[in-house]
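Incident review: delayed structure delivery

Summary: a single-chain prediction request sat in the queue longer than the usual turnaround. Root cause was a stuck worker, restarted by the on-call engineer. No data loss occurred. The affected request and its eventual output are reproduced below so the record is complete for anyone auditing the incident later.

Affected input:
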Amino acid sequence: MTANFKSYCGVLTDARLRQPVRFLVVGGTTFVIYFVLQFLLEWASLGPYVALTIAYAIAIAYHFLMNRHFTFRSSAVDGGIMATLPRYASVVLLNYVILLIVVKLVMSAGFRIQVGMFAGIVLTTIVSFVLAKSWIFRDSRRSGNAPETAK
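Output delivered after worker restart:
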């Protein structure tokens, strides 16, 4: 193996990067699921708004469950689904507000909406990760921000 490949594999196994990489993978797969479902449901003659709503609901449920069980592995220690779901929903709402503000600011500076959407997605990804790790899926057995132990 080349040195670059070995160092790349080391990055993926580094405990400090494990959660951010998993978070991005879950986000990417959520994006794919959302768009594929929306396309298929609209193709099945459900209409664009019905298809969008169903696809969005399924994608959000997938995102929540995958982050809870895969990214943060917190299902047994985060206070339960009834504790995490309201926190998750509030972060989804916060991200929506952030996205609206960023898009408005970027468009008022003369840029296209897509530039604002991209900037907003980058910002809300960071906000989501920080809040998911520190608040939504926090380990109730730990105090403070103890580092994740390798599994």
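Verification: The helical segments are 3-13, 15-43, 48-71, 81-108, 113-136.
Action items: add queue-age alerting; document worker restart procedure.
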